[in-house]
Amino acid sequence: MDNHRRQFSKGSFAQPGLRSKLLERPDQGRVWDSVAKSARAAEVPASPTGSYQAIYEDGKVQAHLSEVERGLPLRAPASAHGAAVFAGVSLLGLDLFHAPWLFGREWPKLLRAHAVEAYRRPAAPDTLEPKLRAQVEGLIAQAAKVEGTLRGNAGVGQLFEFRVAGNRGAALVFENRVVHTAIP
């Protein structure tokens, strides 16, 4: 697997809302509409090229990302396989990886993508943690039993696409192993 470590992910992750739209396999026009909607939600001026990266480069978003990075560890716990991220009581996304080293490598990019999605949304009170944890455990239990479709992937491996609890999800399968599961 070492030869393939560099091929799974480069650059940054799109925020969960945009990843969810991409799972619908929209035409390119709808992708650009979703990028523009993300920019409007973040109150970021649209870039002349419609670039998604322009959201990350906006000064207010950069300040928000810096604040998030100061408050949360960029280094994932050594035994963690993934994370569920909430804004208020809304699940923004769930990302699970087959190995802690892979999650650890991808966590900084995922944290930034989730932070962009959470930008301008209220935080949840700490008292909700047990309820939110139960929600995630239920979602994982449902996802373990779900049926879906397997299709080719633009990169390495295949994508297993599914629906669970009203959400679209996808799992990257490589050499008969689920490498990354995302429920944006």
Brief summary of the model shown:
With 184 residues, this protein is α+β, with helices and mostly antiparallel strands.
Structure, described:
With 184 residues, the protein is an alpha+beta fold. It has one domain (12-183). The protein is 40% helix and 22% strand. It is built from 6 helices and 6 strands; from the N terminus they run ααααββααββββ. The protein has helices spanning 16-23, 28-41, 53-57, 59-71, 100-118, 129-143; strands spanning 82-87, 90-97, 148-152, 158-164, 167-174, 177-183. The protein has a 6-stranded antiparallel β-sheet. Helix 4 (59-71) crosses helix 5 (100-118). The radius of gyration is 16 Å and the shape is globular. It starts with 15 loop residues before the first helix and ends with a strand.
Main attributes?
6 helices; globular; 40% helix; disordered N terminus; alpha+beta; 6 strands; 184 residues; six-stranded antiparallel sheet
